[in-house]
Specification:
Blueprint (H helix, E strand, L loop, with lengths): L2 H14 L2 E8 L2 E8 L2 H8 L5 H4 L8 H11 L8 E4 L6 H8 L3 E6 L2 H13 L5 E5 L11 E7 L8 H11 E11 L5 H9 L10 E6 L3
Parallel strand pairs: 3-4, 3-6, 4-5, 6-7, 7-8
Antiparallel strand pairs: 1-2
Length: 215
Amino acid sequence: MNGLATKDKLREIEKRFGIETTPVTVRGKTLQIAQVRDIERLVEKQFSREDPLADFPFWARIWEASIILADQLAQLEPVDGKEMLEIGAGIGLSGLFAAAFGHNVAITDYDQDALCFAMLSAEINGLDKVRFQTLDWCAPVLYKKYHYIIGSEVLFNEKLLLPLYELLQKALAPDGIVFFAHDKSRMSPCRFFDLAQKDFNPSLPQKLIFTSKLS
């Protein structure tokens, strides 16, 4: 998505739903996060009664799990040559904070509207250690492996658990680490770990670290 296309898309979104920024602070660092001003209108436009999960704009809000994940990443020392991939990023809060704390981050999502907001936030906050890419878990196009893969609230749709697992196998470096944060009240994370346990455990180089939402 080039800069001109992004600006055109943001103008379109501003006209339809409005754009506002919300200050979020993690470990003493505050970022202005761009969001849809009229989320209810966006939901009404995209909601599908046939398949509520298919087009529901989960990306349009700040999830508590993304802040918890950002806090954990803020404590992770950046290492030269080790890049981070955020999947299902939505408006990209976790990846943006990771970049703010010195990591090189690729922020990805299937929805281009979401990426536009993440790109706007990066511009507002002067973040340059970040790039953006659309990514379809069912047909991923990736040209490298990443030492860190991060995601918050990415385990909500059981239909996507297997594609997500296969994406991790393809994209994670041999000694890589996956950081997931999720609402612990949902069952999908448990089913995902049942699927992934043979490839991710403390005795193997690749690791999966899961952080639950506290409430």
